[in-house]
Amino acid sequence: MEISVVIPLLNEEESLQELHDWIANVMQSNRYFYEIIFIDDGSTDTSWKVIEKLSKKNNAVKGIRFQKNYGKSQALDAGFDLASGDVVITMDADLQDNPEEIPELYNLIVKENYDLISGWKKKRYDNVITKNIPSKLFNAAARRTSGLKLHDFNCGLKAYKNEVIKTVKVSGEMHRYIPVLAKNAGFNKISEKVVQHQARKYGVTKFGIDRFVNGFLDLITISFLSKFGKRPMHFFGLWGTLMFLFGTTSASYIGILKLYKVYNGIKTILVTDNPWFFIALTSMILGTLLFLAGFIGELVIKSNNNEKHYAIKEKLNF
């Protein structure tokens, strides 16, 4: 199999037939061996019926239907798990990504040996205030934090080597940061390609302004995980030890000073009346808690069994 096209979707019944025909035309005109994997992320419209109909007409169409709406990351992870193509292309189902980009994306992976190519929608047809400006701020922060010089981390149109998507685990809402996850996994040949963005033809967007807030929070998470995800004790243990030592040293100083004054008959206050006593006690408690957090984090990582965080209701053609 040369190409797997992975398409997560939610309530996109109007666009699926047109998207399928467009992709199939591109594939057939370039004589690619391909599969199209639609992941229905809990749609409440007739999207799954459309996918069933498409699969009967075209054996290259495969489908995964979730029990409920889990999110785009889980949908992509399910598609990645079952994709068999040497090159895996992801795109959105709303016709805003152009399938005509597929041949060039494929060539960049196969002929120029890139691990991952991310689309860059340089010219967008979204609302400037609610999407374009927040998107620019989000991407600037992601570039600075990750070190990857990509302009559009959240673009749905991307191309991967098969080994990349089989290595990277996508969960939570980390689909925005698959290039960062790939980099952290050791895939360093990552670049971008300017792609055509098209205005939404049917329906409405499934994402609001809150996705940028969540995106920034996820960025903090992935920045931490990229440094300490494999060894949480290196972070929590370090700060826990430093705080505990600070508290122990402070408490020892208070105690020694108290004994010295009592021994020499110098008037002194009760230890519990000294504000440093409570600072020292708090530092010792926080230090212990941080150290335990690191220890528990290590145990969780060691016992992680990579369980799936979604339930598949139906499959087609697998």
Q: Could you walk me through the main structural features you see in this protein, from its secondary elements to its overall organization?
A:
This protein has 318 residues and is an alpha/beta fold. The protein has two domains: 3-228, Spore Coat Polysaccharide Biosynthesis Protein SpsA, Chain A (Alpha-Beta Complex); 233-303. Helices cover 50% and strands 14% of the residues. It is built from ten helices and eight strands. It has helices spanning 13-29, 47-57, 72-82, 102-110, 128-146, 162-167, 178-184, 210-228, 233-263, 275-303; strands at 3-9, 34-40, 61-66, 87-90, 116-120, 158-161, 190-194, 312-316. The chain has an eight-stranded mixed β-sheet with strand order 7-5-6-4-1-2-3-8, with helices on both faces. Strand 1 (3-9), helix 1 (13-29) and strand 2 form a beta-alpha-beta unit. Helix 9 packs antiparallel against helix 10 (275-303). The longest helix is centred in the last third of the chain and has 31 residues, at 233-263. It is elongated. The relative contact order is 0.14. The model has no long low-confidence stretch (mean pLDDT 87).
Identify the notable features of this structure and list them briefly.
8 strands; eight-stranded mixed sheet; Spore Coat Polysaccharide Biosynthesis Protein SpsA, Chain A; 10 helices; 318 residues; alpha/beta; 14% strand
Number of domains: 2
Give the number of helices: 10
CATH architecture of the largest domain: Alpha-Beta Complex
CATH superfamily of the largest domain: Spore Coat Polysaccharide Biosynthesis Protein SpsA, Chain A
Helix content: 40-55%
Content-based structural category? alpha/beta
Strand content: 5-15%
N-C termini distance: 14 Å
What overall form do the CA principal axes indicate?
Answer: elongated
CATH class designation of the largest domain: Alpha Beta
Question: CATH topology of the largest domain, which one?
Answer: Spore Coat Polysaccharide Biosynthesis Protein SpsA, Chain A
Q: Characterize the main sheet.
A: 8 strands, mixed
What strand order characterises the main sheet?
A: 7-5-6-4-1-2-3-8
Number of strands: 8
Give the H and E element order: EHEHEHEHEHEHHEHHHE
Radius of gyration: 26 Å
- Return residue spans where pLDDT drops below 50 for at least 5 consecutive residues: none
The averaged pLDDT comes out at 87
